[in-house]
Design brief:
The chain is α/β, with parallel strands linked by helices. The protein has one domain: TIM Barrel (Alpha-Beta Barrel), CATH 3.20.20. Helix content is 30%, strand content 19%. The chain is built from seven helices and eight strands; from the N terminus they run E-E-H-E-H-E-H-E-H-H-E-H-E-H-E. Strands 1-2-3-4-5-6-7-8 form an eight-stranded mixed sheet, with helices on one face. Helix 7 links the parallel strand 7 and strand 8. Helix 3 packs parallel to helix 5 and helix 6 runs parallel beside helix 7.
């Protein structure tokens, strides 16, 4: 396979975790990671799934290999999570993985940044996804700063699709100092109405795509609590991941 930044062709399956208790609410799940992403969020903690130069040829896992591993765990797991990178960049691969997971009788969850609303709509229309978790990086005007130049337009489309078609929608924000503040959270709260739950997670500077963010401190707990309360005042159910 050969990599392609513009289309995602050849990025393939780049990681597999057999059992997770944390990534699919209420379920024990296997995780499948697809390589490649259109965003370049400086605080990203998975640079090896984002940067083309780090996606070495020969590192791909085959669908048959991964789904065999999933099937062997069928008595232990009840769900499969497709994450990344950005899974919707590899539409055919994503659809095949979801269909095979459904054929095993497993619930499915998709992690996405919302940049490909038409693919998101397709998997929902086909009934292939039970839960969608989508990132809201920051307020719309600051999106280029948070994503390395992407605008909020496609994410806004994806939000509308989720509100109209998803049975269980999780929105989530990483609370990165200098990228998300209280004013941003107030804007986000107005956009997030209709979400099943909102996950807030602290920034970690252990490994980041932009070295300038490595070692940077997270917000203190009392600041993150203020941000959580902004969402709760708008009637959103907040899950604190700290």
């Amino acid at each position: 396979m050969t990599g392609s930044y513009t289309s995602g062709d050849g990025w393939g399956i780049r990681g597999f975790q057999g059992v997770s208790l944390l990534d699919f609410p209420g379920r024990v799940a296997s995780l499948i990671f697809l390589g490649g992403c259109t965003c370049r969020c400086p605080f990203c903690h998975n640079p090896s799934l984002v940067l083309p130069r780090l996606l070495s040829l020969g590192d791909e896992l085959s669908i048959s290999q991964v789904m065999s591993d999933v099937a062997r765990r069928r008595k232990l797991i009840t769900g499969v999570v497709i994450s990344g990178g950005e899974p919707t960049l590899q539409e055919d691969l994503l659809l095949e993985l979801l269909r095979e997971a459904k054929a095993l009788g497993l619930a499915t969850k998709l992690d996405t940044n919302g940049v490909r609303p038409r693919v998101l709509e397709k998997v929902l229309d086909e009934g292939l996804v039970d839960v969608v978790a989508m990132d809201i990086k920051t307020s719309p005007l600051r999106y280029p700063v948070a994503t390395g130049g992407r605008d909020f337009g496609p994410v806004a489309e994806s939000l509308e699709i989720l509100k109209n078609k998803a049975s269980h929608c999780i929105l989530r924000t990483t609370l990165v100092p200098g990228v998300v503040d209280l004013e941003d959270m107030e804007e986000i709260a107005s956009l997030a109405q209709g979400a099943s739950e909102y996950h807030l997670q602290p920034f970690s500077g252990r490994v980041t795509l932009d070295p300038q963010y490595e070692g940077m401190s997270a917000y203190p707990p009392h600041v993150m609590e203020e941000m959580a309360r902004v969402l709760e005042k708008e009637g959103l159910t907040v899950v604190r991941l700290w």
